[in-house]
Design goal:
370 residues; mainly beta; Lipocalin; 2 domains; five-stranded antiparallel β-sheet; 2 helices; 28 strands
Length: 370
């Protein structure tokens, strides 16, 4: 357990613009984490992402226009009261996790930062190494900023590792609470659980009666559970729904019955994606996106993958493309992951932006030959 500490926070001009933070299970959290290092703010129609060359880009969701860029931090973690909580690159000579608070309205204004002490053998890196990785997450907890970090080390060898080598593997974690206004840092022994969505009695009873209860999601004034059943190898997907305030049952909705395959729910928990092979072009997939609130089909389009992490921003689909590696003339070319925006009315790409790839991709020790 780390001792309680009160570390200096350098103060700058960071104006607040209301609540914008990610709390799983709570209702009106407008901002959400699309993936680690990518934070979406639907209210301001902006996304904050890691630039492949370093720093953070703020991008307009509709046009892809760069709103601002900063080198004061590299990895967005959380959006809270008009401030972007972000991780910096490792601080030379210091064993700390440095967190900045950037004003999203004035990216050029002086930022605030706080240094979280780390063990001497832990480095707060953003990019993974061959044998090590460091991950930091942030959320609000009882009015304070809760920061959690995890450092992992795995011995990488060509031959299978022996018992002594496995013993050198380790995983360290730590959590602290930061009072945003005062900068006081308090260590905690156990990571608090995410707050659970408070359910009306009727919904709680339904969950308790299910052998395999599904996740209850709140979309505006509706509580919904995705129900999947299989018969003769075919999948049926429907929505069980309730009024979020009264708990009264709403009409159940069947999204599809056998013609599609479930792929996942959007990053903001508002839509569902199903797909199937394109009957006229086997290299493409037909996507069908449904509203979890109403069950109505919200979008149809064709893509070259069966699924992707996604969300809808008005008439625009935002989805991720994966890192691709290909060889050209004995040279390995890596195409970075991207955010891609599609106009749902025309199916055409509006914009795309590369995202920093933090995964280690080689080289590795040669395998032993027996």
């Amino acid at each position: 357990m780390m001792p309680l500490a009160s570390l200096a926070i350098l103060l700058g001009a960071c104006g607040g613009v209301g609540e914008h933070f990610v709390v799983q299970g709570e209702i009106a959290a407008s901002a959400f984490e699309f993936q680690p290092g990518v934070i979406v703010d639907p209210e301001d129609a902006a996304v904050y992402l890691m630039n492949p060359q370093g720093g953070i880009d703020a991008v307009d969701l509709a046009s892809g226009k760069l709103l601002w860029r900063t080198d004061r931090a590299s990895k967005p973690l959380l959006l809270h009261e008009g401030r972007l909580v972000a991780q910096t690159e490792p601080v030379p000579g210091l064993h700390v996790l440095r967190i900045t608070l950037l004003g999203i309205r004035q990216s050029t204004a002086d930022s605030r930062f706080v240094d979280i002490p780390l063990p001497e053998d832990v480095q707060a890196s953003i990019d993974d190494g061959m044998e090590s990785s460091f991950k930091a997450t942030a959320r609000m907890h009882e009015g304070a900023l809760l920061l959690h970090w995890q450092s992992t080390h795995r011995r990488m060898t060509g031959p299978p590792p022996g018992p002594d080598q496995r013993a050198s593997d380790r995983e360290l974690t730590g959590s602290v609470l930061v009072e945003v206004d005062t900068g006081q840092i308090g260590a905690i022994d156990e990571l608090p659980a995410h707050p659970e969505l408070e359910l009306p009695v009727t919904v709680a009873r339904f969950q308790a009666a299910q052998a395999a209860p599904g996740i209850v999601r709140r979309v505006n004034d509706v509580l919904v559970v995705v129900q999947r059943t299989f018969q003769a190898g075919k999948e049926r997907v429907g929505l069980k729904r309730w009024d979020a305030e009264t708990g009264d049952e709403l009409p159940e909705v069947t999204l599809y019955d056998g013609e599609l395959s479930f792929r996942g729910v959007s990053a903001d928990d508002r839509h569902l994606l199903a797909s199937r092979r394109d009957a006229s072009d086997s290299s493409l997939w037909e996507w069908a996106i449904y509203s979890l609130e109403t069950g109505q089909r919200a979008a149809e389009l064709r893509e070259d993958t069966p699924a992707a992490r996604f969300f809808l921003s008005g008439p625009v689909l935002i989805h991720e493309t994966n890192v691709t590696v290909r060889r050209v003339a004995e040279q390995e070319l890596v195409e970075p992951a991207k955010l891609r925006a599609i106009d749902l009315a025309t199916g055409t790409e509006i914009w795309s932006r590369a995202i920093r790839d933090t995964k280690y991709r080689g080289p590795y020790p040669p395998r032993s030959v027996r």
